[in-house]
Amino acid sequence: MLRLALIGTGNLGIHLATACSKQPQIQLVQWIGRTTQAPKHPNNIPYFTEVQKNIAADLCIIAVQDDQIGAVAEQLIDIDSCIVHTSGAAHLNMLRDCKRSGVLYPLQSFVKDQAVDWTNIPICIEANNATDLATLEQCARALSTKVFKLSSQERATAHLAAVFANNFTNHMVHIGQALCAQEKLPTKLLDELLKTTFERATNSLAENKQTGPAKRNDVATMEQHLKQLDQTKKNIYNAISKDIYNTHNV
Amino acid sequence: MLRLALIGTGNLGIHLATACSKQPQIQLVQWIGRTTQAPKHPNNIPYFTEVQKNIAADLCIIAVQDDQIGAVAEQLIDIDSCIVHTSGAAHLNMLRDCKRSGVLYPLQSFVKDQAVDWTNIPICIEANNATDLATLEQCARALSTKVFKLSSQERATAHLAAVFANNFTNHMVHIGQALCAQEKLPTKLLDELLKTTFERATNSLAENKQTGPAKRNDVATMEQHLKQLDQTKKNIYNAISKDIYNTHNV
Questions:
Q1: Alpha helices, DSSP H only, in chain A?
Q2: Rounded mean pLDDT of B170-176?
Q3: Under an 8 A CB cutoff, do A179 and B189 touch?
Q4: What pTM was computed for the model?
Q5: Which of A90, A173, B117, B239 has its CA 20 to 30 A from that of B57?
């Protein structure tokens, strides 16, 4: 049985608590958050609003925003458990003042009230010693079939790649949908195209599936497009089009 | 029975020929292309390398690149059929010198040797008169269940939206995959995230699914990301991040 303490009640904290409480190999011994009321959760996890000095856990997982990891870690320097952050971007050495430290980064975008299938989420783990890495691997494998041992540098790259693959693709879809809405066209006009786009990009490399005016340097069409955009969207259009052209023609 | 002449043997031309030849309501009476050898196609469509003066068709469909539509249309000014282009970006009046004119724009990205499900492809149609519009609708409905009557301006918007939804999302995925490959990480690390991203973006509005450092103005993470990128990718990162922040915070 793996004993876990969890700090954080944001999107990731709640998703982690829900996923862990479903695993018989994992016992959530404490959940710590800033909100006075304990968040809803399936099992009866002891909830506290401040870090407890007597955390009797194998892993103490910090699921808070990156800029708060340091402040939380400061309160954990006397704890004997392996202190683990869940950030894609933060280096392992952010926890250097803790007795033992590690990282457990689930490469997924978590939004409120939307269930995710943990089985397929890649979980990237890192630790300072083999024992803690083994414990982290045990925890990660209880949640997912896809566990990767990545260094802090590799994880930073994976996180940046995820920003392009999720945050930026999502914003591109938003701009497309917003353009349709402005012209009072149904946004579902784009659904079949989105379906094809995603299927192709994951079944092989996206590079081989590129089409459009930027790739074929169709200047007339691009000029017509730019006329329909405000300056901020023009900047996005030009920056991406230039890079598409360079990727496929230079 | 709808008689069709088809001009063009590029990606769209071949996909259209394949789709039309499967429809009992449509007869492909002529296929015209620049390549001396007729492209492979399921039925025995008469193939020519030059426009024939005696085109006996209800619709003459021009499936060529936008910058070639004008030159092809010039050769069709004496033809009695309704001359139809298939461009998202080109105005209907590009065919103003033809006796009758229309547009049939399938909103999909066509790549070579990759079958598409025409039933769900939105087909946007436009014509100068009700009779030709009815003929175009008959043709579009034979191919797809999703037919939209759009003006040239509405179609231009739909096309621009499609560039963001397909071309630009695909390039974002490519950058993510390329970053992984540079660091010798498996690109499949991103597959589950991509699956979630596109499912969410199509099941509701992408605007409501945005996450990431730009939305929450996590400056430290963004600065760390920028250090990992070359100048061209930095420009893309900054332009999109700024717009994500403005969309969600201003």
A1: 11-21, 66-74, 130-143, 152-162, 169-182, 191-203, 219-227, 231-249
A2: 97
A3: no
A4: 0.92
A5: B117
> In this complex, is the C-beta atom of B178 within 8 Å of any C-beta atom belonging to chain A?
yes
Q: Which chain A positions have a beta carbon within 8 Å of B112's beta carbon?
A: none
Q: How far apart are CA B147 and CA B125, in angstroms?
A: 7
Two tokens, residue B121: 């492809």
Q: DSSP secondary structure string, A87-103? A: -SSS-GGGGTTSSEEEE
Angle between helices B169-182 and A169-182 (to 10 degrees): 170
| pLDDT tens for each residue of A21-61 | 999 999 999 999 988 887 877 667 889 998 887 888 999 99
**Gap from A3 CA to chain B (nearest CA, Å):** 28
CA distance B104 to B82: 11
Closest CA to A188 of B211, B136, B148: B148
Residues in chain B: 250
Partner A, chain B 125-144, Cβ-Cβ below 8 Å: none
Tell me phi and psi for residue A208, to 5 degrees. -80, -5
Summarised one tens digit per residue, pLDDT across range B187-211 is 999 999 999 998 888 878 999 999 9
**A111: pLDDT confidence band, cut at 50, 70 and 90?**
confident
User: How far is B78 from B80, CA to CA, in rounded Å?
Assistant: 6
Residues of A with Cβ-Cβ distance to B220 under 8 angstroms: 66-67
**pLDDT tens, A177-206?**
999 999 999 999 999 999 999 988 887 899
Neighbouring residues of B239: CB distance < 8 A, sequence distance ≥ 6: A232, A235, A236, A239
- B122–A154 CB contact, under 8 Å: no
For residue B42, pLDDT over 70 is answered with no
Domains and CATH numbers, chain A: 2-150 (3.40.50.720), 155-249 (1.10.1040.20)
- Separation of first and last alpha carbons in chain B: 56
Find tokens 């081989």 and name the residue.
A208
| Predicted confidence (pLDDT) at residue A98 exceeds the cutoff of 80 | yes
DSSP, collapsed to helix, strand or coil, labels residue B169 as helix
pLDDT at B154 over 90: yes
| DSSP-assigned beta bridge partners for residue B82 | B59, B100
